[in-house]
Amino acid sequence: MRVHAPAKLNLCLYLGPRREDGLHELCSLFEPLALGDPIEVTEAERDEVLCAGVEGENLAARALAALRQRGWQSPPLRIEIEKRIPVAAGLGGGSADAAAVLRLARGEVEDPEEIAAGLGADVPSQLVPCLALVQGAGERVERLPEPAPHAVVLLPGGAGLSTAEVFAEADRLGLGRGAADLDRLAEELRAAAGAGSSPLDYGELLVNDLEPAASSLRPEIGEALDALRAAGAPRVLLTGSGPTAFGLFESLAEARAAAAGLERDDAIVCEAGAP
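^ thats the sequence. predicted structure below, dont judge the formating
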């Protein structure tokens, strides 16, 4: 069996108060991308998860172990992940792989959402890759209609950036909003995205509150954002906690033309939406 684990893009990310469990309240729009990790699943003598370029246990291995703990009775599996999603780039690659593994047991294990939440904040939203309004620390997922076609240019920016460090820097800088503000923004995003519009139609709502913190730790993020603006992207943002900058475009052709003008080896062009 061959399955696809799509990357996710944070079309926006609003930062709320820090919770007692140490996590932050968030409000975000997630959407899948055509960019993803191909995963080969075959029967084997024992469970094994292989992922070149990722050292040690990864989320996909933890997802398979969690399914076994819930009593999933499939034959032992060999799961081979081909990493195409840049690692530690704010694109949810590890979470995508874990969610893809959980989908193997769809209908055979109770409450996969609970398993997903135990694996990581981004995993629940990727159980069913689609445009979604995500709240809480990632555990509250409201699926929305498919948006109008659009495309993206991603600039991953090389080495990864620690999510924990970015949130700590955000706290140090005093970033964030109150709970009432998050609730208001969720209503506005639900109304705008719920109509099936392109995100470019509500660009004023596309904001990442973590951008100043990430740019403080990695000044080259600002350079990537400026490069995308100069290339003509109608809307430019940071995804997640970074370091990937992205530009939104109305069409794949426009995205490709802009990427060609960037003259950057790390540029990735893809359509939005899971294939």
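Residues 179-193 form the longest helix (15 residues).
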